[in-house]
Amino acid sequence: MTTPTGPTGRSRGGKVRVKTAKRRTTSSNQWLERQLNDPYVTAAKAAGYRSRAAFKLKELDEQFNLLGQVERVLDLGAAPGGWCQIVRARRPRAVVVGIDLLPIEPMAGVTFFEKDILDDDAEAVLREALGGAADLVMSDMAANTVGHKATDHLRTMGLIEAGLDMAGRILRPGGAFVAKVLAGGGDGALTALLRKQFLSVKHVKPPASRKGSSEWYVVAQGFKGVAAPPVAESTIEGA
User: Fold this and answer.
1) Residue 187, marked binder
2) pTM for this one?
3) Annotated catalytic, 45?
4) How many domains, the chain?
5) What pLDDT, on a 0 to 100 scale, did the predictor assign at position 66?
6) Does 119 share its domain with 207?
7) Signal sequence span per UniProt (predicted)?
8) Is residue 166 in some structural domain?
9) Residue 173 phi/psi, 5° resolution?
10) Catalytic residue among 15, 22, 56, 180
C-alpha cells in the first residue's frame, strides 16, 4: 500500500527529498529540505525548544561556561526565544531580558521587548528590566542577506557593532559577550576592538551550526569595564 507523502518523499538512504511546487522557489525548497533532514531540528522539537539555535548556546556554554554564575542576562535579537530557554533551564533564578524587532511569544521568567536596540531609550529600558548591570550579553542577531558578500558583511558588522556597543554600556566588569559573526567577520578590526574591552576573545563554530553556513561565534570574556570607540566604517574588512 502506498502512503501519501505530501510535499516530500524519502530516498533509499532515508533522506527526505522535497518535491517541487509551483509556489515555492528553488531556495525555499532547499531550505525546507535542510530543515526536514536536520537532526538538530528534530531534537529541538523533541526537547520543546523554540529553535535549533538553542543547541548552539548549549554547546557554547559547555565549552566556555558562559552561564555558570550569571544572575542577569540580556539577549539581543531574542526571537523566537530558544537561547532564553537554555538560560532559564540552566539558571532558573537568573533575570533574563530579551529584545527583538519581531514579536516573541511570552515565556515564564523572561521579559521580552519588541523594540530596536538602537532606540534612544533602549539602554534605560533594558537596564531597568535587568535590575542592574548584566553578567552576559548574547546576540544571535543576523542581517537579512542580499547575496552580495561585501554588503552582507557590512550589514552583519553593523549588527555586531550595535550589540557590542550595548554590551559595553550594560555589562558589569568581568562579564561576557557572545555574538554571531560571518566567516571572516571575526578578524581584523573587530578582534582588535574586542581585545581592548575583554581579557579573552575566541572564535568558534559550535557543532549545531550547519557546516555549510558561514556563521561563526565570537566569545569575549572578562569585560574590562571600559567601552572602546566604534570601528570606523572604512576599516571594516570587505568594505
Assistant:
1) no
2) 0.78
3) no
4) 2
5) 97
6) yes
7) none
8) yes
9) -55, 135
10) 180
| Confidence (pLDDT) at 234 | 32
The tens digit of pLDDT for each residue in 183-238 reads 654 457 888 899 999 999 999 998 888 676 778 899 999 999 866 555 444 333 33
What are the CB-based long-range contacts (under 8 Å, 24+) for 9-13? none
CA dist., res. 76 & res. 55, Å (int) = 17
Q: Which residue has the cell 568581568?
A: 174
Q: Are residues 100 and 25 in the same domain?
A: no
Residue that has been written with the C-alpha cell 517541487 in this structure:
20
Pairing verdict, β 8-10 and 16-18: antiparallel
Does residue 239 register a pLDDT over 50?
no
The pLDDT tens digits for 156-191 are 788 888 999 999 999 999 999 999 987 654 457 888
Chain CA centroid to CA 98, Å: 12
Give residue 192's identity as a one-letter amino acid code: A
| Phi then psi dihedrals of residue 117, to 5 deg | -70, -15
Q: For residue 40, what are the domain limits?
A: 16-45
Is 140 within any annotated ligand binding site? Answer: yes
Q: Is residue 10 part of a domain?
A: no
